[in-house]
Design goal:
Length: about 350
Amino acid sequence: MHRPIDPKIDCVFKTLFGSDDRRDLLIHLLNALLAEDLEAPVAEVDILNPYNERETLDDKLTIVDVKARDTARRMFQVEIQLLVFPQYLAPRILYAWADLYSQQLHSGQDYDALRPTYAIWILDQTLFVERPEYAHRYSLRDDQGRRLVDHGAIRLFELSKFQVARVETDAERWLKFLKDGEHLNPEHLPEWMQHPIMRQAMSILSRFSEKERDYHRYQSRQEALRVQRTIQRVLDEARAATEAARANEASRAQPRKPSAKPRKPSAKPRKPHARASRPRSPRSHASRRSWSSKKTAEQQSERRALRPRTGRAGAQAAPPPCRGRDALPPIIPRPVTHPSIAPTTGSATPAAGALGLARLKT
């Protein structure tokens, strides 16, 4: 009985490409996915221990799915990644490549013993959301595209973006097999699977489904992946809720500007004010100040003219000024004279004075 087997599950992937008796599958995969990077195709490989050795107990232990070395002593690493954590995966990819590259040297060896190291990462989920292409290549180059050293590359393939109408190359053949191999029927294979190496890979999937021991191992691994996906989804939702809460608190902490009420449009347009429309002279303040000083001087001169002058004959003392808000200037009585009465002098006689009084009485 045929049961669907996903070739991306790590135990199945290692059975396909990490076994000594199936090196031809690994060689074909390396030449297909690294065709643009290899100076010469891979002819023979040795499957190595997937555990990268540690020099001390404090060193980090890295485990890869498939690790191999060819006859030219070039190093190869092949990884299948079903769960993608964007904030952690990119540093992990670089660290795994650097760890494999640095372990080539042993005590007493020079740097010229270093050989190119190639890393292939096949991702089931999307790592770069903003990039539409599914294949990515990374190497040591400067801003002008010149190599620092031709010592390998890192290749990434995102299966979630892989969509081709017609399979034409070996790289597309392997990527489509890894993506849709679970849904293939071994008795009715499509045209792009009609290749000896691809039929061999499909036969391994069929044997994996027929053997109970291998199938139970496959199911237990799938169950572990389901648990990991659930944990990842819960963590993503909790992280999104925390970020939304922080953004909401930040928006509340900011002071709100008072909203201006819109004015109702008036039925009649207002006429411009006469004073507002007339340009104001810059000397208006100075002229207003001079006019005030002139008015004050006139008032002082009028009051000075109304005051009694001392030293004249017949002048009377002025009464005390009125105090109050509505005080008027004091009225000074003047002496009454008659034209018939002549002023008396020292040379006038008493008779003349009596005559004048008699005339007044009559």
